[in-house]
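User: Could you write out the 3D structure of this protein bound to pyridoxal-5'-phosphate? I've included everything you need below.
Assistant: Certainly. Input first, then the structure.
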Amino acid sequence: MEKVHNFSAGPGILPAEVLKQASEACLNFDNLNLSLLEISHRSKNYVAVMDEARQLVKDLFEVGDEYEVMYLGGGASLQFAMVPYNLLSDHGSAAYINTGVWATKAIKEAKILGNVNVLASSEDKKFNYIPKGYTIPNDVDYFHCTSNNTIYGAQMKSFPNCPVPMVCDMSSDLFSRRIDAKQFDLIYAGAQKNMGPAGSTMIMIKKNLLGKQTRKMLSMLDYQVHAKGESMYNTPPVFPVYVSMLTLRWLKQNGGVDWIEKINQQKADLLYNEIDRNSCFVGTVETEDRSHMNVCFLPTKPEYEEQFDKLTKQYNLSGLKGHRDVGGYRASLYNALPLESVTVLVEAMKEFESKYAH
Ligand SMILES: *Cc1c(COP(=O)(O)O)cnc(C)c1O
């Protein structure tokens, strides 16, 4: 089988050894001669999976028991609703920054449940930068940001000093770089970008934020219910959680976030340097805000697109097509993507320039 270099933006690439273990568990899990997919989620073998999956998040973030970790269904998109449902008080407000399509969707849901103060937006320039210099009011219930703009390729390189609980959608750069997790009160991430298959979302919340609402809460939308149930209030997405656990275990065993951050930096440097050097391509994002996970670039002439598409096929480069709102190319360099794949992409870009630039 010829190797395909997978730059898909999501669901994204997973480590080969994780896929192998996951497929084995579908046939025979823990030598039970049963599939992971056909045993009780309350069996001791599966409870061990869920416990490890939750603990690994705390290990990798280097936080303690002041946080609760859970895995829920519904995607990151459900968190756009659950965050305000759980944290926004009756007459209170929440502060958001609008840095892309996902942030816009998060704001839309919060507005249905209460007052939203959009402190800053980069929509004026097609979300190609991260707004800075805004002030977070100290009388809002929480501040919400999106650490990495998956579609437009801008990434927050630092986070504001926040006088109120800080909530972050980290779906597309979770555990890709060292951050101080303790400055956040709630972090959530859909699994399918950097952690596992679609179908589960990781939520890490400070325990003191649980049970804030005094009104009656729908059980399935109440963080406290899921926290008390240790992510087993109802049947959890057993397979996505298992594969996420394997990926986090892979990350930890190889050296954790510090290890992957170095590789991610190398991958991003290699590709951005080539984009800047190569006369056939141009980056779309302000240099200081360029994402290390989703690298967006355009051909300098529209007619290049068809020819470069052909060349990328020859090189077995997959998933490079830019989001329909941006066009051009988007190379997603998630944790499991090896440096070698970026090297091959850069080779293709060089060959393209030598053949077509005039
Ligand atoms: C993909 C993505 C989402 C949406 O995730 P779903 O699991 O499809 O709901 C939300 N936020 C960000 C930053 C994303 O990249």
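The mean pLDDT is 97.
User: Perfect, thank you.
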